[in-house]
Amino acid sequence: xxxxxxxxxxxxxxxxxxxxxxxxxxxxxxxxxxxxxxxxxxxxxxxxxxxxxxxxxxxxxxxxxxxxxxxxxxxxxxxxxxxxxxxxxxxxxxxxxxxxxxxxxxxxxxxxxxxxxxxxxxxxxxxxxxxxxxxxxxxxxxxxxxxxxxxxxxxxxxxxxxxxxxxxxxxxxxxxxxxxxxxxxxxxxxxx
Length: 192
Known about the structure:
The chain is of the alpha+beta class. It has helices at about 15-20, 45-65, 120-130; strands spanning about 30, 35-40, 70-75, 75-80, 85, 90-95, 100-105, 105-115, 135-140, 150-160, 160-170, 175, 185.
């Protein structure tokens, strides 16, 4: 069990999380094991990376003829009422329409664009939550910093744990198969 899951579950419920009023400043509130986690509004680069990647994912889904799948940005996902967890992935591929929040079983792929402010514990808690909910694929994007280039890591659920299926660090088209359909991505397009 990761360190992120060893803390006691907090007092807040998924229902309380969903009842929160929208933020006026663009910040996002997620519920991780009964505790509210508020993130500042995504930066320009964060939003640009998510948007451009979303366009590439949507193109692949359409090209595959998968009319039952939709690519949506920043939606509420009820991960677990028992674990009191609700997340807002930067992008998601879902297999059904819904209202305010998607059930975890509708989530085919979750994409998290990590910001420098995301702690290791937060990253682990989110990955553990997606795994416990049975989300088959998770992609993470590490943003470019002075220390490293932009990187996409594609994970596939295997026996209740995520295994790295592919890591993309180069520009130019690369097809990632750890997804509901093969998706050709070009990290160069995310660096505009």
